[in-house]
Design a protein that fits this description.
This protein is mostly helical. Helix content is 75%, strand content 1%. The protein has one domain (5-263): Farnesyl Diphosphate Synthase (Orthogonal Bundle), CATH 1.10.600. A hairpin with a 2-residue loop joins strand 1 (87-88) and strand 2.
């Protein structure tokens, strides 16, 4: 099975170190960017590029940019004004390590670094647009989550389609566009990304059930119940496998395996 992680980690280290920035500013950015994680969005970008005939090298700047955007969103999400989380991936959140002001700037810097990185890639307007739209939609979803509490399944789906799903779509579509996909294939990729994003969110809600219940948070589990949520997860995983049936090769196998692993994940 493909292993994109070492490639992604090396690229993030290399790309972020190449910028000439004040030491504290760059250190705070790299603190969060290089703190590990599953790198699902970057992996999706590389795999979708290979799925349609592109190469890892074609999509690598886009994959790195997506991880920079994701890291920025986590820094800001952890702030006291947002979710107020002191820890992230087993170590102090950026604002706990560097202070709130520096954390805000680190997030701003990572978002801008992503855009600057992609500006060096000639052409590829569709792939760039997918990344930029994903970043904007993700922030819109966070705004809805902060200001308009979900009341029912439709409003919950709207929030998570933006907050979680947007970067999944951005990752899959930017990778596919970078690999030279056509219109019909792009629709398959979009459908795959939407189902995978929903699958990821539903499994997340199952994992966080105790915490969410204690906070009185509306989730797929509180709306559907545990058993129905699990049935929806199984159905989504099945739909994803069917979508990938028309594709072959290592990238298709990787994406199918990724969906299966997300469906049964425990962390």
């Amino acid at each position: 099975m493909k292993d994109y992680l070492p490639i992604i980690e090396a690229a993030l280290d290399r790309y972020s170190a190449a910028f000439d920035l004040p030491p504290l500013f760059l250190t705070s950015m790299r603190y969060s960017l290089l703190s590990g994680g599953k790198r699902i969005r970057a992996c999706l970008c590389l795999a979708c590029c290979e799925l349609v005939g592109g190469t890892v090298e074609d999509a690598l700047p886009f994959a790195a940019a997506l991880e920079m955007i994701h890291a920025y969103s986590l820094i800001h999400d952890d702030l006291p004004a947002m979710d107020d989380d002191d820890m992230r991936r087993g170590k102090p959140s950026c604002h706990k390590a560097f202070g709130e002001g520096n954390a805000i700037l680190a997030g701003d810097g990572l978002l801008t670094m992503a855009m600057r990185l992609l500006s060096d890639v000639p052409g590829q307007e569709a792939a760039k647009r997918a990344v930029f739209q994903g970043a904007l939609d993700m922030a819109a979803g966070q705004s809805l989550d902060l200001n308009v509490s979900a009341r029912d399944l439709a409003s919950l789906q709207r929030i998570h389609d933006l907050k979680t799903g947007a970067l999944f779509r951005a990752a899959c579509l930017s990778g596919a566009y970078r690999g030279g996909c056509d219109g019909a294939t792009a629709e398959d990729i979009r459908a795959f990304a939407d189902k995978l994003g929903l699958l990821f969110q539903m499994t997340d809600d199952l994992l966080d059930i105790d915490k969410d219940q204690a906070e009185g948070k509306l989730t797929y589990v509180t709306l559907l119940g545990v058993d129905e949520t699990k049935r929806e997860i199984d159905a989504l995983a099945s739909d994803i496998r069917k979508l990938l049936n028309g594709y072959s090769g290592e990238a298709a196998a990787y994406l199918c395996d990724l969906a299966n692993r997300i469906a049964v994940r425990t962390v």
